[in-house]
Amino acid sequence: MSDAHSSPIRIHNSGTNLAKQALAEQEKSNWPMPEGTILAGAGRRGGALVIDMTLLLAILAIATRGRIFNAWNIRLIPSFDVHYWIAMVLILCVSTWLYFRATGIVFSRSLGQRMFSIAIVAEDGSEMTSDMWDRRSLGKLLFLIPLFNLYHAAYEIQRIRQRHTHQSNLDRRVGSIVVISNSLPPALRRHLR
């Protein structure tokens, strides 16, 4: 038997084992996050989204005396009250976009994310820009479409779990990551409220 194949963990003749190769690949990565930062998992992120949507719908239900739920009443579309349906859909979409944008700019996270001690930052750990919050808030509108929102949520959870960066497709488009807020270095935490 040859000496080149005597070790079961060698993968080629250079003498590199799997652990050394994995470490080398990590070092080659251009991941700009500070060391020690902990990425938020799908469970925390999903819980925060449920809280955010529940809070937002509760406020809108009180403000519109329950009429906001007509945004999902498709029987209004072919009727003479289609303008009423359009108004409720616009109120729902604009309110959702404003909620995620305003809480993002003020707190660097939504209220639900704040409850779960997670924060949204740029991929390098810096504070997100206003344009990034606009795009991220716009992406949240997909969660308002009945039935599609379940598929979209499952798809995004799968992406979060598959990627080593725990980024959803929305995160990748925007250039953001979701982290446990206390794991950020103090210098990068200053903008969090």
List the helices and strands and how they pair.
Layout: H1 18-28, H2 42-63, H3 82-107, H4 111-115, E1 118-122, H5 130-139, H6 148-162, H7 169-174, E2 176-180, H8 186-189
Antiparallel strand pairs: 1-2
Mean pLDDT: 81
The termini sit apart by: 64 Å
Q: SSE order, as H and E? A: HHHHEHHHEH
Indicate the percent of residues in helices: 40-55%
The helix-and-strand class reads mainly alpha
How many helical stretches? 8
User: How are the strands of the largest sheet arranged?
Assistant: 1-2
Rg calculated over all Cα atoms: 22 Å
Give your account of this protein's structure:
The chain starts with 17 loop residues before the first helix and ends with a helix. It has helices at residues 18-28, 42-63, 82-107, 111-115, 130-139, 148-162, 169-174, 186-189, and strands spanning 118-122, 176-180. A two-stranded antiparallel ribbon has the order 1-2. It has one domain (36-189). The longest helix is centred in the middle third of the chain and has 26 residues, at 82-107. 51% of the residues lie in helices and 5% in strands. The mean pLDDT is 81. It is mostly helical and 193 residues long. The protein is elongated.
Fill in the keyword field for this structure.
mainly alpha, 51% helix, 2 strands, two-stranded antiparallel ribbon, 193 residues
